[in-house]
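Thread: sanity check for a docking pose with zinc ion

Original post by kr_44:
Hi all, I'm comparing my docking run against an independent structure prediction. Below are the sequence and the ligand SMILES. Could someone generate the full complex and paste the structure tokens? I mainly care about where the ligand ends up relative to the chain.
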Amino acid sequence: MSLLIQALRYHGQQDVRVEYVEAQPCRKDDVRVKIAYCGICGSDVHEYLGGPIFPPPPGQKNPHTGVQLPVIMGHEMSGTIVEVGSSITEFKIGQNVAINPSMDDRHHGNVECSICQSGRPHLCKSWACYGLSAHGGGLADEIVVKPFNCIPVPEGVSLKVAALAEPLAVASHLIRISGFYPGHDVVILGAGPIGLALLLLLKVKGARKIIISEVTESRSRQAERFGADMVVNPLAETSDEAGSENLVLNAAQSIMGDGADIAFDATGIQSTLDTALLVVKPGGVVFNVAIHEKPLLINPNSFSFKEVKLMGGICYTNEDFEDVLEYLASGKLAAEDMITSIVPLEKVVQNGFLELINNKAGHVKILIQPSK
Ligand SMILES: [Zn+2]
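Reply from moderator J.T.:
Ran it for you. Here is the predicted complex with zinc ion included:
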């Protein structure tokens, strides 16, 4: 008889269930990790409300992993290694790890493609993800992964904070590929979890001035606490009766001179894209962080006339996990304040998913803790 574990499984829109499922076998090149904490991502909430986006459609299999609904959710996890396969030499039982949930050619037994070989396995055409499209996820008692999914947690970093490594790695990766240099001025449009993670990391990485644009009061306060130089509500009333004044632009002109070196759009609506193009200085970068539900309008003149680069990015590599874990170990990155609630796995639906839907502005990151 095989062992049963508790896990949250996605059956479809507004149908996620805590259930007992069979534990995966730990084969010779696998590692079994007992989950300590797993965060709920905004994308998990999107799957709940409007999915499946990343899990396979009903009745179909993921072409790379063969998995079909229901799938175990959760991809922001930390834990402790409890079993290693016979060919594993780089990890030992008892080691604490953060998990990079990305899967690529290596997981499917394929020859690594040119994209994987170029150091971008997160863009592999065979990409899949634990917690969305694989046989296992972090909202469970345990998970079986490959050793290259595991990043050792340095001494002095708790497993609780290590569960933030994934969202922080997203931010760290986007900053790394954006062309950011210490001394740059940055505008961030939106203070959700990734906007705040960008803010925390940009401060550690040496940004000169950071302006946050955010409409909700509670998130604005969080951005202030996390050290933004200015927090602007773009919808605040102004003396300009025509309503044509852009308050974020005013702020950028007041403390950044010629504008921002980089504008990160972490909201993804027409007005935030327009504002990003407005506040960026000539030669700067407008960086799309948001996931869009529909296309936006853009006049290419707006990047031609200022020689602005328009770019985007997604996910991370193991290097990004290593970077943020090092920052966390150094004590410079005070990310623990991102955790607004810790909830047992049994209550993940009511106090996790539904709480993030009904009280979104009250939270940055909810962590889920398995019972065992
Ligand atoms: Zn590949």
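The mean pLDDT is 95. Hope that helps with the comparison, let us know if your pose agrees.
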